[in-house]
Amino acid sequence: AAVPGRNGVAVRAFMASTAASDAMQEKRVAGEYTAANVQVLEALDGVRKRPGMYIGSTGPRGLHHLVYEILDNAVDEAQAGYATEINVVFHDDNSVSVTDNGRGIPTDIHPQTKKSCVETVLTLMHAGGKFGGSTSSYSVAGGLHGVGLSVVNALSEALEVTVCRDGKEYRQHYSRGKPLTTLSSTTLPDESSRQGSCIRFWPDKEIFTTTIEFDFSTISSRIRELAFLNPELTITLTKEEQDAQVQHNEYCYAGGLVEYVAWLNNDKKPLHDPIAFRKELDGIIVDVSLQWCSDSYSDTVLGYANSIRTVDGGTHIEGLKTSLTRTINSFAKKSKIMK
């Protein structure tokens, strides 16, 4: 029907057809939102449903993130003062193993879950030894959320955990987050002082969109960084290849941050040896190393918290820049270098 519009121009009004109206009504009924529509995903099913939420992507970035999750747990053992060696191996069957010589994941029965502590941390989200504050097993930790190990387990078609502690070796096998066996134990020889944890996992081809292939240089960059940040730790990276020479690198930098800065400025002309200092206050330890170079016209500032790179900066970076600027300005004025 035509109705008068502005300036006397007739405007035709269209009524929705009966068919379109019925279709809309059907859609509303089909999309009813009741308790029957609310799904409750069990344990690690949510991780498999939306893996990108936990590891960033299902491409190469997410694939390498699996290694970092296990590696960070091993580094936490080193930062707690219990591990001195970590071995990362890319096996020729597309699996990765990360072994440390720390205390080993506890194997006793957890009072809440009534399962072994190993199974608890491998199958439940937010289960870990790093939540207790002053009562925690770790005063410093990078893997703080209790999701790393369980997420890797959920996204692996197979996972083997081996724990050595209290004179025994414990083993358990998993697939896609679910235990295939119970935790078995064998007694180690009397002369053996072996202890620590080993996680070996095979990423799930159903989850990852690209070929399961780990890049040696990508992982080695992260390992080198961790070795600089933890001077008492030795980390090895090995890549097994069929019909090819095995790649093997060992990373240990006793000089810590001083060695890191020297390595970063390797191709520049430094004006002095790296300056380094360490301060502990209110339970927080700060380590800093600095060096100025005559042929560098922009700054390179790398910040870390508990060995995790803080790419977006933070109060620790802002505090350093502010105090450094204030100190240099104050010295320049007192020395009458600046008017």
UniProtKB/TrEMBL annotation:
InterPro entries with a match to the protein in the record: HATPase_C_sf (IPR036890), HATPase_dom (IPR003594), Ribosomal_Su5_D2-typ_SF (IPR020568), Ribsml_uS5_D2-typ_fold_subgr (IPR014721), Topo_IIA (IPR001241), Topo_IIA_B (IPR000565), Topo_IIA_bsu_dom2 (IPR013506)
Pfam families hit by this protein: DNA_gyraseB, HATPase_c
Cofactor: Mg(2+)
Record keyword Protease present: no
Family according to the record: Belongs to the type II topoisomerase GyrB family.
Summary of the function given for this chain in its UniProt record: Control of topological states of DNA by transient breakage and subsequent rejoining of DNA strands. Topoisomerase II makes double-strand breaks.
Protein name: DNA topoisomerase 2
